[in-house]
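#random but structural
TW: two for the price of one
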Amino acid sequence: MSDTARLRFGDPSPDDLRRDGWKVAVHNDYQLGGYDYTFWLLTKRFPEDGITRAVKGEGRTDSDALDQARLEVAKVTRAATDCR
């Protein structure tokens, strides 16, 4: 079972997510309207129901984008483990 309490909000690295079993599927840095942005897409297969789920985060910094993904991880993990 995932321990979302160990997620490190504010961290610009996805290492906490990787330790929780999430895989980085896509990481992209880009410019839009002259501003820098970053996008992260992560996936994880949940043994509780065998479904692979995806979460994403997008923002001006890696920390912002990964914190969005961490919020989604908490929601998805709760939903997946509630299905048992």
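TW: number two ↓
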Amino acid sequence: MFSDPALLRLIALEFGIVPNASITLDGDEIKKMLDQLPAEDARRCKRKFRKLHRKLRKSRKRGFASAKERVKIKKDDNKYGIHGNVPTQSQRRRRRELVRNFVDAEVRKLNE
């Protein structure tokens, strides 16, 4: 399903986020990497991840125009969490998956 883990890590670093090539060790791997960074760099990586996540969610919402599709937006909010609320563990995992899938798509573009 996913491309080469080394390429995933390189592309993630290009985006300025902590690379997350592992599916099973999601949160633990990221937390260990962030702990190794200086506080300011860790903060910057977290902010870039959030910015990328919001951008991806916004691009998904642009396609929803009809009333039925607007219901999907509310379900999407529940799936990824609502702005201003602390996300649950499953919402955090879905956010990581969304960003990981985007990075994987970028790797696939490079391989074509």
